Amino acid sequence: MSNMTKSAKTRAIAAYDKQATRKALSAMYKNVTMAKHSIKVLNEYVDDQQMRKCLAKQTKQYDQFIQQLEEAASNLNHTLRRERKSYLVMAKMGIRMQMMFDDSKQHAAKIMLKGTLMGIIDMNAMVNETPRLETNTATIAQQLTEFEEQRMDELKKYL
Predict the structure, then answer these.
(1) Claim: this prediction has a pTM higher than 0.90
(2) Mean of the pLDDT values across residues 69-92?
(3) What residue segments make up the domains of the chain, in order of their start?
(4) CATH fold label, 3-156
(5) Which among 102, 104, 117 is positioned nearest to 153, based on CA atoms?
(6) Is 77 strand, coil or helix?
(7) Fewest beta carbons within 10 Å, which of 78, 111, 141, 157?
(8) 32-69, pLDDT tens digit by residue?
(9) Long-range contacts for 100-109 (Cβ within 8 Å, ≥24 apart)?
(10) What is the radius of gyration, based on Cα positions, of the chain?
């Protein structure tokens, strides 16, 4: 690598907001891990094989996002923290309570759609508030937003 290339890379890295980028990585990690957790809980209630395949596909994509986020955080010397166990238990209980009254695939899709919409809103707000994200982090945010939007369309089929 030439000195000029190293210098350009150093300037590009220095141009991003480190604290905001780390905060964005943590927010995306929380979004993705919570979505994956919610799918796992809801999957207990889904009998429809097509919907189960859809949810499995989404879980696989979330695993890929988790890996990307962990690599990006590692490259920036940032440690992503897993969600507290108590928070996951509360989320699980909340989903189970909602499904207690209506355990249909339509209701499961509604719960997932609401969570997905919240994720899209949070992602867009985070990106709009942080114009100086590190390039790879901004790319992951864009890919995650696009995935969530596609997910909305997939889930609408089950209403």
Answers:
(1) no
(2) 92
(3) 3-156
(4) Ferritin (1.20.1260)
(5) 117
(6) coil
(7) 157
(8) 999 999 999 999 999 999 999 999 999 999 999 999 99
(9) 103/45, 105/45, 105/46, 105/47, 105/48, 105/51, 105/158, 106/158, 106/159, 108/42, 108/45, 108/46, 108/51, 108/158, 109/51, 109/155, 109/156, 109/157, 109/158, 109/159
(10) 18
